[in-house]
Amino acid sequence: MASEPVVNWDFGAEEETPLIAHGGVHRDVPGPRPPSYPDFDTANTAVKFDGQGAYYSYDDPGHLSPFDFTNGDSITIEAWVNARDLKDGENLYIMGKGRTGNPEFAPDNQNWALRLRGVKGKACASFLFATPSKGSKSHWHRWTTADGFIPRTGWHHVAVTYEFGKPESVQGWIDGKQLPGNWDMGGPTTLAPVVDDDSVWIGSSLGGSASNSFRGYLDAVALHRVALDAETLKKRFHRVGEAPKPEAAPESMPKLGELPADRVTVTFHEGMPSHTQWLDFDEDYPAEIIRWETSEFLTPRLPLRYDSWGIRDSWNAPVLVRMAADVSLPEGKQTFLLRARGLSRMWVDGKLVAKTGALQGSPSGEEPITPVAEPPLPGHRIKQHRLHEETGTFQVPKNGTYRVVVETMAGGKKFRAEPGEFTVALLSPDGMQYHVLGPVGSPDAPLPLTDEAFNNALVRIESSLASLDDENRLDAAKSRQPFWEKRHRLAQEWAEENPGPSIPKSNTAANPIDAFIIRRIQEAKAAVQGTSPDEAKKFHSEVLPILRSECFRCHSEKDSGGLQLNSRDMAIAGGYSGPAIEPGHASASELMTRIRHEDADMRMPPTGKPLSFQQIKTLETWINDGAKWPELPLSVEESELAPIVGDAKFIRRAYLDTVGVIPTEEEVRVFLNDDSADKRAKLIDQLLADPRWADHWVSYWQDVLAENPTLINATLNASGPFRWFLHDSLRDDKSLDQMVTELMMMRGGADDGGSAGFAKAAQNDSPFAAKGHVVANAFLGIELQCARCHDSPYHSTTQEDLYSLAAMFARKPLSVPKSSSVPVAFFESQEREPLIEVTLKPGAAVQPQWPFSDVTGIQDNEALGPYLEDKKDSRERLTALVTAPENERFAEVTVNRIWRRLVGAGIVEPPHDWEGNKPSHPELLKWLARDFVVNGYSVKHTMRLIMNSDLYQREAIGDQQDIDPTRRLFNAPQRRRMTAEQIVDSFYGAAGKEIEVETLTLDPDGRRPASNRNNLGRVERAWMLASISNERDRPSLTLPRVSVIDDVMVAFGWSAERQIPRTDRETEPNVLQPAVIANGTMTVWLTRASHESPLADLAVEAKSPEQLVDSVFLRFLSRMPSDQERVLFANVLRKGFEQRLVPKDQVKEPGRLERLPQVTWSNHLRSEANTIQQEHAHRARVGPPADPRLQPEWREVYEDMVWSVVNLREFVWMP
After folding, report:
1. Is 453 exposed, middle or buried (0-12, 13-18, 19+ CB in 10 A)?
2. Where is the DUF1549 domain (predicted)?
3. How crowded is residue 566: how many other Cβ atoms within 10 Å of its Cβ?
4. What is the pTM of this model?
5. Residue-averaged pLDDT of the chain
6. Which of 566, 831, 906, 1197 is exposed most, by the fewest CB atoms within 10 A?
């Protein structure tokens, strides 16, 4: 029976029915071709799927389309397949309709699907559909052929035919042969399948689940609305000769042509078919993605992968890593040492001399503990845990240059793409020493395979790879430059058409900020002239507290009923019911009527107890007396400008506010001795250009944006580690509108540091609603936390507002999950009208639309077009609505955040919730925002402006944060404690040490995917730390040294888990803070004059006790000691100072601690794993050995002196 197919995708140059590609879909690869497949064209092409969620999608045309099948409809699905890898029980998705994971449709909505199912080593044809669910899996119905073909044996034709409602009609065909089969899930059924308008997908299902994704090649995928007859299906398959057998390609050394002299060339090729075997005879190496040149055969990590915008992306593993160079070898038998984590091989002059096996999967805890490896020779570096190590020999015929090529597989479908210390070493002629192999003509001395030399090389190599990463990232980011130049040009044009306030004229202020501040103070002084102090005191002590505690929560931050009561004018103006107060007439005032009302539903306040008799009497008297709202007189402390700080305080403050660490002793000395008039401005410019500026700001955005990665099982609202996207953006000095846009576009690798990690919110029934909350909170000053489950009781925002943002992120309508709705029973059980309201019904579809035009001033209309590249993309529209200059709220919220970070209190408080909270300096805020826009949304520009102001450089004696905005005059900055990150980083910096803790991973051997057990890398700054908690509370799953620093961080307000966005940390003093600085393990590490530490060197090299005291004060407090302090501490150190050094011939170097076996996720359930980690914890508590050059008695006095300085209050407070 012949039939025109509904569709036939042959993946030629252009499909009549276009498909949309997602993920690793590769077109124009060779398909079945003559002579083996004579029915195809000689240039026939197919498509390759990487098996990691790659797929094609095609939208269903609509109701009762040709793609919809129900009872009585016949179907044939057919395809040519070349499956590369299929394990028993796996299902590789060829094509189907439904079950895409689209939340608009029921989850189990498979209308039809053709898959390959692994059975006893063969790929069988499998047909799948679902009937309407009745609460059990019996609604799934799968039929699978009893036989199949062996994967990796070339092209095969598969087909199934079926008439829905007649289970006996099903037929399966492979290579022109009808095969028997059985209904192996759900059994046969006469019920009709689920029918809806979900999409058709080729290559995957379930939102792109890797476990359901096709690995290999597809061609000629077709769908028919008839059951093709046997004769037609027999003729579908025509192959000349036998099916090719799985056959590995010859292991021949790649021909690489001329290579650079004196360098090792390393190339990286992603998308290898398998991590367990090399290419088959009919496969080609993937194209080279990145090339790197280095000094020796040592590759400890892959370069970072970036997308076309320069945002971190994931490698398509397995990745082939190839090192190659021409090397000089002496005549004779040479022995090579090869170390690699995965499948590897090495050639010398075309001869295969060494191979290693493939990386094996993780047994999830029960793997035996691997003993510490033996070194290949005494004194040599041992191989890393689970690294393969093999030796091979090559007979060199004569002295000369020979080509060496070595390859390894990094990562796999379920492994992170990490090669370990991929190394080749050569044994010296005397057999006593291995050296890492280097290229001919290298100017560098051979690198010994010892810990010291190897570790030094790793630092150099990391610097080289980091430079390569920067180059690749910036090169990719150039593609965005024209777009952002256009955006900023449009923003400047808008700012010219909408100028901000004029700068006040001032004879004393050189900085615009100071001009605004001085004028505001003058206005405030004038406003309180003539005010009765007694009258003002009575109002603020008796009346205002009642209004604030009983009325403001509904009628200040939120204008419930259109009424605000946070000023006299607002109260008189009233709301929907008219004026709230009639000055002089309490009995005629609506406020008093509602307060006294006997009906609980009418009485105010709506919750809690009614006002007391005394409270009512106080308000009544106040209104009858005229409802005056006098300002309190200004005190000297509130209104007089604070003095400018000295140079020592300024340099410490400037360093902490820019690079997040205190200055070094030398930096302080140079600045204090500089007599130039503009040295402060120069220092500000220098610090804003320092790369460490990015390190300081990352931690702030981590809190504000709720970055919440985990090392173990994801907890509530766990995100990807988009910290790296933030750090890259800050280091590259991206404008803030660009950084926010790219964050919200959620690109790159979700688990690899891309902004796609922002999209993740584990265990959350509506992740995009969570992200809408974050964005509104961070950049619009709109608090939506309560709107998650109901309309906000104390704000004007609704649940629909939040889900409108979520729908814009999702690029489609979204429904409110039942789990995010207040049950109806809650309202039915209330005796009076509840404070909360639900205006959005559970399950109601919310359209992607902009809900904040009134608040932000920007409309979602055609005027937005110039800011967009894809006008139909609601997510991109959302980014423009948030960041375009017409949204004045974005710039104002941003400069207010910068201001608060530097001055200690915001112009608007709190920065994340502006509703009902007026700015203290509205004109200054508007001027700063316009200046921010005009200068390309540059955070550094605004910081430079603020830091050069007199306000920033005044003594920090202000108390501005928690007061009425009318009293927030900014005559002085707010007193601030250092952040947890600043304390840790500064403590390490002052001690002259690097942070030496465990790598942030519980899977150091890379045998788990990043989505399951990530590796957050080496900790260099405190912001890089993350939660290491585990719900199992097992010692084996701890990182003891990381825990030590975590404890300090937590004591000072840091949170290891950020489930919600946070502008403010806990800053109240607590008993842990002095305890952790005085007695904590980190303090032991950093105040000890440990072996070869900078503190020990300082003591050894000191010329006098006074000089040593000066150095310690400059290092830790950024100032010289007072005369009294110098005398006090110098006298303590003077005893024994001349005899403090141990004679050189008596100095005994501390011994090395015994190496302990590696604990990983793979072996953490073994009892020995707990013992090992407990020993690591013990060693951490003991701390580093003391420096043997110093006499113990004097050294301990010196350490006590350092400890005393560190424990001065000023160490943890901003000056």
Report:
1. middle
2. 638-811
3. 20
4. 0.87
5. 93
6. 831
